[in-house]
Structures are given as structure tokens and as C-alpha cells.
Amino acid sequence: MRVIPLHREDPSDYSCIAYWVLGENNTPSDRNTLIDTASTDPENLAFFLREMVLQPKGIGKKAVEQVILTHSHFDHSGGVPGIDEHFHPATYSWLPAGRSHKKTRDGMSLTVGDQSATLLHTPGHSEDSMCVFLPETGTLFSGDTLYRITDHLGAYPKAYLDTLERLAQLDIRTILPGHGHAITQDALAFIRVCLGNVRQSLLHD
Ligand SMILES: [Zn+2]
User: Fold this and answer.
1) What is the pLDDT of residues 58-69, one digit of tens each?
2) What is the rounded distance in angstroms from the CA atom of residue 9 to the CA atom of residue 126?
3) How far is CA 205 from the centre of its chain?
4) Using DSSP, how many helices (H) and how many strands (E) does the chain show?
5) How do the residues of the chain divide into helix, strand and coil, expressed in percent and rounded to 5?
6) pLDDT interval class at 170 (50, 70, 90)
7) Looking at residue 191, which CATH number applies to its domain?
8) What gap in Å lies between CA 64 and CA 45, rounded to an integer?
9) What's the structural domain count of the chain?
10) What is the pLDDT of residue 1?
């Protein structure tokens, strides 16, 4: 699997890191996948296209065959119209998005690059949040679901506690978040610290 983070350094544009996922050997069964699409700024698509020239994508295959949105906030989904226009991908997201939206269920399996992935509905940051989990490598594309929680002074929806309990059960070895650095060491410990703090925090509906 090749995972290519796509993020343009531009302080005037608040945008997530999108992840472009390709198979190792460009076989016909691979699904070239874009996880999140960055913000509405058209510079992002131009940047994506420049980066995408640099990688083999498989003969006759589009650079982006499918899009998975971790949630609908603009810094993740703003690029959908431009990506749609350019690649006509299938789009998986908890809420309908994109020209060719596919019905998306919690726990559904999908090929991402050359791996089998599970889509997880992980409400908390937003009601429509999803994570993409690749069990083979223990990779979790977490969108905005996971961020460092170092105290129990916050307030969270109860659903977020359930989400963290659920993620803490998985064999997660690498977290690729929508913002900030990848977590490649002690990923589960990171989740358990967040979980412990959220458990002691104020919870609301
Ligand atoms: Zn975000």
C-alpha cells in the first residue's frame, strides 16, 4: 500500500490533510482512493493534480476511483465538487455527498488501495464522523475523531465516549489524522489516554 498525504502549506487556507491511497503494484483490483478532499480552495485541486502525476496509478486507471469523506466539515469535504468534476469517483460518506454517492453503512468493507478496509461510524467530533480502518496494517484514518486529550476538563457528547471505547478495542498501530502528525508509536496508548480523560469529563447528549 502507498499512502500519500496531500496537504498544501498555506496559512490563509484552513484545510485538512487528504490521504491518497494506492496499491503497491497497481493491479487491476486496486481501488485508488482519496480520503477527504481538502477545503474549497481551488489551489488544492491544482496541487493534488501535480502530485498525482508523480505516482503510477495502474494502466487505464483513474488517480481517484473513489472518495471517502471522514465527515462533512468544509475543510474535509470542500474539494468534492472539483474532484467530482475531474475524476467522477464513487463517494462514500455518512451523509450524502458527491455526484455518485454510495450508500454507506457502519462496518461496511471496501477495498482501499490494495487492502481491505472497514468503514466505522464514529460520532463525536460530528454526528457524521467516520474512520477508515485497515486491519492488515493496523492503520486508522481518523479524520477529526482523534486528537490529544490531556485533561478531563472538557465536555463531550456521550457518543464520543462510545466511539473511543470502540476504537480502543481495535488493533490500531498507526493513526493518520486529518490534522497534525501521524501517530506511529503507541497508537493504542494514545487512544486509551484520550478515553481515560473523556470518561472523567462532562458528558452530554
Ligand atoms: Zn478538520
Assistant:
1) 999 999 999 999
2) 25
3) 25
4) 5, 13
5) 20, 25, 50
6) very high
7) 3.60.15.10
8) 12
9) 1
10) 96
Beta bridge partners of 133: 118, 140
Q: What is the pLDDT of residue 99?
A: 97
The Å distance, Cα 25 to ligand 1 centre, comes to 31
Residue 85 CB coordination number (10 Å):
10
User: Residues whose CB is under 5 A from ligand 1 (ion)?
Assistant: 16, 75, 144, 178
Q: List, for residues 84-97, the tens digit of each pLDDT value.
A: 999 999 999 999 99
CA gyration radius for the chain? 17
Query: What is the whole-number distance in angstroms between the Cα of residue 54 and the centre of ligand 1?
Result: 26
Q: Which three cell numbers stand for residue 82?
A: 472539483
- For 73, the domain range is 2-204
Which helix (H) or strand (E) segment holds residue 155: the answer is strand 155-157
